[in-house]
Structures are given as C-alpha cells and as structure tokens.
Amino acid sequence: MNICKWLFMGLLLVNAAIVIWLSTALSGDSQAPSAENDNYTPEESGIEVKMNNDAMESIINDAIDDESLAITVDEEQIALDVVRQVIGLSIETSVELEPVSTGEEVVFELVDINISDLPLSQNMMYGLIKDQSDLPEGISFRDDERALVIDSEVFTEQLEWDVRVDSIDYENDEWYFSITR
User: Fold this and answer.
1) 179 - beta bridge partners?
2) Cys bridge to 165: 37, 102, 148, 169, which one at CB 3.0-4.6 A?
3) Helix (H, G, I), strand (E, B) or coil at 33
4) What is the DSSP letter of 103?
C-alpha cells in the first residue's frame, strides 16, 4: 500500500508541474509585429527565373500568333523565319538575330538577312522587311539600325507578371528574367 501512495504523490507532482508550465507558457507577453518593421518594397521582391531556349521559343511564338512567322531558338542561333505569298509566289525570308541588350525591351540585331536568295545588300533587305512587316503590338523594328525590338510587356502579357529580361545566353540554353508582382 505504501508504494501506491508514493506513485500517487509522484503523479500528482508531475500533473502540478505540467499545469505550472502550461500557465507560464500561455500567459507570456507576446505582441503582434509592428508595421514599422515591414521591409517589403516591390523592387526587392522580384523572383529570378531561368528559362531554356525551348520555353522562350514557345512564349515568343505564342505572342506573335501568326502562322507565317516563326522564331527558332537553339544553342547555335536565334532565327526568324517568314513565308509570305506575293503574286502567287512563295517568298521565304530568314533572319538571324543576335541579342544585344536587355531590360525593359530586348533588342536583337539582325545579323544575317536572306529574302529568297535575292542579291540585295543587308540594309536594302532590312528596309524591305521593315516596310512590309505587320508586327503585333510590343514588337517593332528600329529605324536607325537593323534591330528588332521586343518590349518586355509581351512577356508580361504571356506570363501575367511584370517581367524584366536580365540576360540572354542562348548559346548555353539560358535566359534570365526578374519577375515582380
């Protein structure tokens, strides 16, 4: 009988210790975080995203939404291919693009232009392409240099986030973006 009395007393002490511990843990002084300590700023909340050539090719072609116009992106080149029917003839145009700047707009230099193997200078072919092209909003040709400009708004509309193009390294299958709310 003596052992039961000591076990009961031990159990009573354990229960008392648990009650004391719970009461001190639950009655602690805790406050809600202050709004003054909020360090959120939209510029610092960006997400860095890396995409590959296939994903970029798909996004750009979806934005263009023209069956006769296609962008091909691989480790060797970025190419724009266009097929147009003019007076019953199929005119095939291919342009090799080289990214030269990024940011709010991506600028691609038109390195090599070929319009159905016509023996014209690069500047003359650029003029023909620029004058005859009906590009969608956000994509345009520069007047002062052989360049195709894609506004980052094109990517923003496709991804439904604010997008900034940070770097393009198509030769290593890497495109870097910053995405913010």
Assistant:
1) 47, 163
2) 102
3) coil
4) B
- H runs (alpha helix) in the chain: 2-26, 53-64, 122-132, 153-159
Euclidean distance between CA atoms 127 and 166, whole angstroms:
29
Q: How many CA atoms does the CB half-sphere of 41 hold within 13 Å?
A: 3
d(C-alpha 101, C-alpha 149), whole Å: 10
Tokens of 168: 């393009």
Which residues on adjacent β-strands are paired with residue 174? Answer: 169
Round to whole Å and give the CA distance between 176 and 9. 68
CA trace torsion 20, 23, 29, 30 (10° rounding) = 120
Amino acid identity, residue 104? E
In whole angstroms, give the CA distance from residue 160 to residue 86. Answer: 37
